[in-house]
Design goal:
By secondary structure, this protein is mainly beta. The chain is built from six helices and 30 strands. The protein has two domains: 161 residues, no CATH class; 114 residues, Rieske Iron-sulfur Protein, CATH 2.102.10. A six-stranded antiparallel sheet has the order 1-2-11-12-13-14, with no helix packed on it.
């Protein structure tokens, strides 16, 4: 069975209007890794998606993800998929073991309005929406994947935080230039460069009724609890650098101390039975209760709580237009004047 290059509507409540070209992009099914201490790739200024298990930490250069879109891998022995969609810049990491078995994913095509990745699983060829994390057509319709927390950091930052970690090798069997983004292959139709695409208001596909309170290419982090979805634009988070918030009864904090080397990360504020409140001071993050200092990985590295870790929250990162096309009822965080650093 193969997918034709045509538009398709899945017969479900959740609409999947997609252009399907099975395996047009070759995903990674047998990743190789290099120790962070000895790795010559990526460069210090390259962005990586970093994940941490109980026994290991791994990093995936976004320049590799931009070419290959999905890395099928394992973390602490559990099957996972690190997924990326170039046009809407969405990053989601899933645990791919479900009650129906472990799944290996490939690229099926593009969800048109969101310009977002549609995946298929090898076992049943069911179609999955990356931003929803759910099978919307096929034998596995209704099955959902569990999201895994991750960080997006510059390589220099990640390897400092996780010196014993490993990074995805650029020796992956196909001759792509992983030192650059695939502008000519994927983006030239919409912009002359990867950076110009993010600045432009031009969209790959029309998004009828798009909410224009944000620039369509605003990058954001999303948090979901029950039916409540809240998004935190990077630009608003950086005004505060430690966003103390409550979403559906869950007290959380969004940390974002260094725009140069980090993107925002979300954690629960409850630690050892008490709620912490965080603040920024001279581009460093402290909690009000003990004055302990915290890093972007949610670890206290100085003060009374040194060695303690906050519980990370699974999130999705995406451009606004792609996210809104999927979750139009999202609540948008805006930094108040009193919060601003």
């Amino acid at each position: 069975m193969s997918f034709p290059g045509q538009e398709y509507r899945a017969p479900t409540v959740k609409t999947l209007r997609a252009r399907l070209w099975k395996d047009l992009i070759a995903v990674i099914r047998e990743p190789k890794f290099v120790d962070a201490r000895s790795a010559s790739y990526p460069s210090d200024d390259d962005w990586v998606v970093g994940i941490e298990g109980k026994n290991e930490a791994k990093a995936y250069p976004i320049k590799v993800l931009a070419w290959r879109h999905i890395v099928n891998d394992h973390l602490d022995g559990r099957p996972i998929a690190v997924t990326y969609s170039s046009l809407c810049r969405s990053v989601v990491v899933f645990e791919t073991g479900t009650a129906r078995g472990a799944h290996v994913f490939g690229v099926a095509g593009l969800n048109i309005a969101a310009s977002n990745l549609v995946m298929y699983d090898d076992e049943t060829l069911s179609l999955w929406n990356q931003l929803v994390g759910e099978a919307l057509w096929g034998k596995l319709t209704g099955v959902t994947l569990v999201k895994i927390p991750f960080l997006i950091l510059k390589w220099r930052e990640w390897k400092t935080l996780f010196p014993g970690g490993r990074v995805l090798s650029s020796d992956l069997g196909l001759q792509f230039d992983y030192t650059s983004y695939p502008t000519a292959m994927m983006m030239r139709e919409f912009a002359e460069s990867w950076e110009e695409y993010e600045r432009s208001e031009n969209l790959p596909n029309p998004v009828p009724g798009l909410d224009r309170r944000l620039h369509p290419k605003t990058m954001l982090l999303s948090v979901s609890y029950d039916d409540l979805v809240k998004v935190y634009p990077y630009s608003e988070c950086y005004k505060v650098r430690a966003v103390n918030d409550n979403v559906a009864g869950h007290n959380l904090v969004i940390l974002f101390a260094s725009e140069k080397n980090q993107t925002p990360a979300a954690y629960l504020r409850r630690l050892d039975g008490r709620e912490l409140t965080f603040r920024d001071e001279d581009s460093a993050i402290y909690d009000e209760e003990t004055g302990s200092a915290w890093n972007i990985a949610g670890a206290a590295f100085d003060g009374r709580l040194k060695g303690k870790r906050l519980t990370p929250i699974p999130t999705t990162h995406c451009l606004w237009f792609g996210w809104w096309a999927t979750y139009p009822d999202s609540v948008v965080y805006t930094a108040s004047r009193n919060e601003s650093a």
